[in-house]
Structure prediction request, 185 residues.
Amino acid sequence: MNNPQSGTVRLNFSRFGLLARLLTAVAILAVETVLISGLIQSPLLDSLTGAARVSGESFRLGLLGAAPFVIWCGQTLSVQSLIISLTLWGFFKGLYDANIFAAMLDTVPPKARGTAVGFMNMTGWLVGAGSAPVLIGYIAGQSSLSFAISIAAIALVIGSALLLTAILVTVNRDIEKVRLQRLSE
Prediction:
């Protein structure tokens, strides 16, 4: 039974099992989106400049597109609505997952790519995965888990704004540096 006052959805064991299976399907959709995104974008990536711009823009689209579904996920009290919101979030997550490394590696010189990948992974796990549960737990304790999940969408919007700034300000300069280094090798 759902309780709108407390923001909880109660599930019996069999419904919880079904929900777990459906959420596995959501994860599979994210993987499929990564593959489809790669297949669609690969032909568009003929030039170095095109690669960085296409990767950066689709990464940004994935972040922005996911934000409303994170909010919906946090606000819903319906299992069906939760499944739909997580499925659509998974689709957009696939868009940005497909381009995380491509966007970065297009603008990093080959000799520094291992360091860049390591730094990106460390930052993602330490800052994102390490702090997010603590922060969400704190916010949920002060208000509700529903509110805490919903405001997590702010991180997606901020990330998208930072990417737009990087695309407009630094991508062309970084691409030119990498191009010149490749010519000199």
Notes: The helical segments are 13-41, 48-75, 79-97, 100-105, 113-142, 145-151, 153-169, 171-184. Residues 113-142 form the longest helix (30 residues).
